[in-house]
Amino acid sequence: MEGSQALVLFTLYALLYHSVAADHTARYLSEAEEKELQIQLKSLNKPYDEYGITFDCVDIYKQPAFDHPLLKNHTLQIKSTSFLKSMNKNLSSETVKLPRRCPQGTVLIRRTTREDLIRAKQIQRTKRIGLQEDTVSVQAYTVGVSFSSWNRPEKFYGISADLDVYQLSGILDSQTSATQMIISKGERGPLTFHNVLQAGFHVHHEVEGDNFTHFFTYWTSDGYQSTGCFNIHCSGFVQTSEKLTPGLVYTLRNLALSIYRDRKTSNWMLYNDQEPIGYWPKEILNNMADSSRIQLSATASSPTDQPSPPTGNGELGGASFKKIRVLNGGLDPYPSNVQHAETFLDIGKPFYEGIYNVDSGFIYGGPGGWEPPKF
């Protein structure tokens, strides 16, 4: 009996030792075992293809964001330390519909192609970023609502809103149509301190390589001069979601987006409802202790020899931003009397429309069709 007990104890000890020493013995895997392990890894982390686009499940600590020289010593933040009181308590049905596309410990990253980089360089040269158009042959038309703290005591620390999402058709490769929230600081100072963060959805062939509706992000810390990019075409934006990633074709009916500054880390978080998407680290921004201007807008751009494209759902007033909340330092919504809202509309009916109401939100949209006068 004593011998049997000793044998059992020895066996348990051997098993325990084996589990503790697993990391040390892993290097001695046979060639066949190593091959089998690689096959298993490829199976778990296999590329995800959709609409002709390839996405990879990338180790969260090895994603492209950390190639940025300012992020070498950055501490990864998986979720916000500051809970938005304005968030819904229950996940929206649309958020729940998003499937988990990657295993735990990895994040969904759109694979960047040579063609993506060529188009990105062209966009950087012409500044076709959805806020302005520097080229003579392209004209942009914007409608939106702006909240400004310029020369006022209030400081903005974030924005949240529900966006209607539509699958617009008939937009040419040379045209764009974008709906977005924009949060910025330094817009009236030197460009080198003009910081901008953007997120929303767009149809933008030059960025995405097709005419589908895509979820997108953009950032710059020098007024669109040399820093920043769309999506993950450069390092900087840190992806934390296994479900939603910049550049993904978005087919659901709404986005419940929030961009806000985390009170503890000072990173600028991006959420869809209560689901973290990622964030812009404080290290890549040089003037974003808070925000001086927030915009909710739709922008359509087109060569001057073509009629302007539609926005929203293609109908006048057919799309909206709802549950709009401009956030203070405690991440509570500011009352409407200190938001200083102003609407702007480059071209009105019958082409586009934009109406802001504190209770109903911002209503916008239009079929487009405007052509500049020919002289």
TrEMBL record:
Signal peptide location: 1-22
Entry-linked InterPro entries: Glutamic_endopeptidase, Neprosin, Neprosin_propep
Name used for this protein in its record: Neprosin PEP catalytic domain-containing protein
Keywords: Signal
Source species: Zingiber officinale (Ginger)
Compositionally biased spans, kind Polar residues: 296-305
Domain (Neprosin PEP catalytic): residue spans on this chain: 135-371
Disordered: annotated span: 296-318
Pfam family, one: Neprosin_AP
